[in-house]
Write a structure and sequence with these properties.
The protein has about 400 residues and is of the alpha/beta class. The chain has three domains: about 160 residues, P-loop containing nucleotide triphosphate hydrolases (Rossmann fold); about 80 residues, Rossmann fold (3-Layer(aba) Sandwich), CATH 3.40.50; about 130 residues, Rossmann fold (3-Layer(aba) Sandwich). The chain is built from 14 helices and 14 strands. Helix 12 links the parallel strand 13 and strand 14. The longest helix has 14 residues. The two termini are about 35 Å apart.
């Protein structure tokens, strides 16, 4: 399965039947041979991805996929892998040829709709057979879009295709909005409380901490980074009153005690939850923790894979804190990366999503959709931790205005 992982660039997936020219198209767009091209149908077996720089736009990831019409037991597995990529794609290119459209294209079109995925229909191999007016009209009627004529051999309409791609990629997939810009002003001081423990990567900070520092600097404010045991002495010695304090969720209680009540306090995880998560549904779902009963099952979703320590936040600490808070016998499952769930989402009484720093907003929202559609409450690591530690209202208050029961946020 293709996952974006650290590559937060827009992903462009190329789909269609076997031998329709998908690999030729990706090679043509990338300007190099990155996918094997053959007259033998089914040459591409697993999704293949390659970074590609679009002049005047920026980097994207091209994803070549196996033919949607693959057959046999192994072929069905290839088709399944192709369909799984739809969860990570920002724009789909549906490649057709020989004026041919049928059930496979109809099925892909339906999948695009289910994933709210913008798409372009490309008639490939037009140097061999150009699309007929009848076929163009049919595509327009079926898809609501114009058919784009292309050939990887003579590169007809190449520049127009690049322009169409850049104009069709949704803005949310490449435009970075501010993490904290609506909360801080020029010259404000923001304290970042960052414990250095067994889970902290050697020689560096974790990604949300780095993102917060960069965003603070981008907003012409000042970032002060402290370990949790240094906060009290720093505030007493300097008498600085920061505009905002952001803490690692694991030391929420210590931060709550150290940071004066008139200073807004939140966590890196909640910051990310507001930035790219389904914050409105998190606000609705978090209080459901108090309604958990004996025998309920809770799903924790980690959006990256990492070395698991003996005191891991998702696998150890959150279950421990939640069990202590509820006093109930609860079953916990953890799914890392973007792996498929091992049981139906309806088996769970609550889903707890990590901050999602390693994936895109689209991936994170897609990850939660099955739970939300099924009516399963969802929350976020930081929000759940704040709730069970009794500091939930304070932790969300920087991002919530008015009556918190109305789920209105900045």
């Amino acid at each position: 399965m293709v996952t974006k992982g650290r590559e937060s660039k827009p992903h462009i997936g190329i789909y269609g039947r076997r031998n329709n020219g998908k690999s030729s198209l990706i090679n043509c767009l990338a300007g190099q041979v990155i996918a094997i091209v053959s007259d033998h149908a089914g040459t591409t077996t697993d999704p293949v991805k390659k970074s590609f720089e679009i002049t005047g736009f920026g980097p994207v990831i091209l994803v070549d996929t196996a033919g949607i019409d693959d057959s046999g037991d192994l072929g069905q597995k290839r088709v399944d892998r192709t369909l799984q990529t739809l969860n990570t794609i920002d724009l789909a290119l549906l490649v057709v040829t020989d004026n041919s459209w049928g059930k496979y294209e109809d099925e892909l079109l339906s999948k695009f709709g289910e994933n709210d995925l913008p798409f372009i229909v490309i008639h490939s191999k037009s140097d061999i057979q150009e699309p007929s007016e009848k076929f163009k009209n049919m595509i327009s009627r079926i898809t609501g879009t114009l058919l784009f004529e292309f050939s990887s051999v003579d590169k007809r309409n190449f520049e127009q295709l690049i322009s169409l791609i850049t104009n069709t990629i949704p803005e949310y997939s490449y435009k970075t909005t501010t993490l904290l810009g609506d909360l801080i002003s020029y010259g404000d001081i923001v304290i970042l409380i960052t414990p250095i423990d067994i889970e902290a990567p050697a020689g560096r900070l974790i990604l949300p901490q780095m993102q917060a520092i960069r965003d603070i600097l981008d907003n012409d404010a000042v970032a002060i980074v402290l370990k949790e045991r240094e906060v009290d002495a720093f505030l007493k010695k300097t008498r600085i009153k920061p505009a905002l304090a952001i803490t690692d969720s694991q030391v929420f209680v210590k931060a709550d005690a150290s940071i004066p009540r008139d200073i807004p306090l939140t966590s890196f995880s909640i910051m990310l939850a507001r930035f790219k998560g389904d914050f409105d549904n998190y606000l609705k779902g978090t209080p459901k923790i108090s309604e958990l009963k004996d025998g309920d099952r809770v799903l924790l979703l980690e959006s990256c894979t990492h070395h698991v320590s003996c005191d891991d936040i998702g696998r150890t600490k959150i279950p421990r804190w939640m069990t202590s808070f509820t006093g109930k016998k609860i079953e916990y499952d953890v799914v890392a990366g973007l792996d498929a769930l091992s049981r139906p989402i309806t088996d769970y009484s609550l889903v707890i999503q990590c901050g999602g720093c390693m994936i895109t907003r689209k991936q994170l929202h897609n990850r939660l959709q099955s739970a939300i559609k099924a009516g399963v409450p969802v929350t976020n690591y930081g929000m759940a931790i704040a709730y069970v530690q009794g500091i939930y209202e304070r932790a969300i208050s920087p991002f919530v205005k008015g009556d918190k029961n109305q789920n209105t946020y900045l």
